[in-house]
Amino acid sequence: MKIAIFFSLISLSFFIFSCNKSEFKESNLGASATSSSMSSPVNSMPEMTGANGLPPGHPPINNQTAGTAESASKEAISIKKIAGGVSIEECFKDKKKLNGKQVKIKGKVVKYNSGILKRNWLHLQDGTGTSGQNDLVVTTLDSAKLNDIVVVSGVLHYDKDIGSGYFFPVIMEDAKVKVEK
User: Fold this and answer.
1) Is residue 105 within 8 Å of residue 152, measured between CB atoms?
2) Phi-psi bin for 129: left (phi > 0), alpha (psi -120 to 50), beta?
3) What is the pLDDT of residue 66?
4) The pLDDT value given to residue 79
5) Ranges of residues in the chain whose predicted pLDDT is under 70
6) Where are the domains of the chain?
7) Where does 70-179 sit in CATH, by number?
8) pLDDT tens for residues 116-168?
9) Three-state secondary structure call for residue 104
10) How far apart are CA 168 and CA 180, in angstroms?
């Protein structure tokens, strides 16, 4: 019980010190808590990461930046569905019907993480679907690059919980990836 209280206090302390003081109003905390003499440790710390999400001077890992995933530009995507395949919108809309089935999808790699859990993780978009249902996560042993146009073929699963807070409404696992461009 004492250990649980100890860790709760540490978590609460971390939360309080990591909050930006502008989030608090004087009416809620009193004048002394919002005075200019109060500074947040987070706001006063020097920048610890470079543009690539790693400490300054750290070399790239696996030809990609680490710490944060590589993400594509925010330009509009419009990719025609491959013959005999499905769109990303259809994957989400028909996820129960497609569960456990081999499907083919053509899309653009908008996010890429390599070597996580001995797999490469791609996020594909094809311009279909609405926000939250337009980005398909794909695991593979193959590689691709950010902004590549690829055709992936693999087994779709829905409502996949891999633990540690990672839940995927739709995911394609063990895909084969063919880079088109």
Assistant:
1) yes
2) left
3) 41
4) 94
5) 1-74, 181
6) 2-44, 70-179
7) 2.40.50.140
8) 999 999 999 999 999 989 999 999 999 999 999 999 999 999 999 988 898 99
9) strand
10) 26
- Which residue pairs, CB below 8 angstroms and at least 24 apart, start in 62-69? 62/114, 62/115, 63/114, 64/112, 64/113, 64/114, 69/111, 69/112, 69/113
Sequence-distant (6+) residues with CB within 8 A of 131 are: none
Q: Which positions ≥6 away from 144 have C-beta within 8 Å?
A: 109, 112, 120, 122, 150, 177, 179
Q: First CA to last CA across the chain, in angstroms?
A: 58
In the numeric block, which tokens belong to residue 9?
Answer: 């206090």
Other Cβ atoms closer than 10 A to 142: 15
* CA–CA dist 45, 20 (Å, integer): 13
The CA–CA distances, whole Å, from 103 to 78, 82, 114, 151, 155 equal: 20, 11, 22, 10, 6
How many C-beta atoms surround the C-beta of residue 22 within 10 A? 9
- The Cα 104–Cα 177 span in angstroms is 10
According to DSSP, the β-strands at 119-125 and 136-140 are antiparallel
CB 87 within 8 A of CB 128: yes
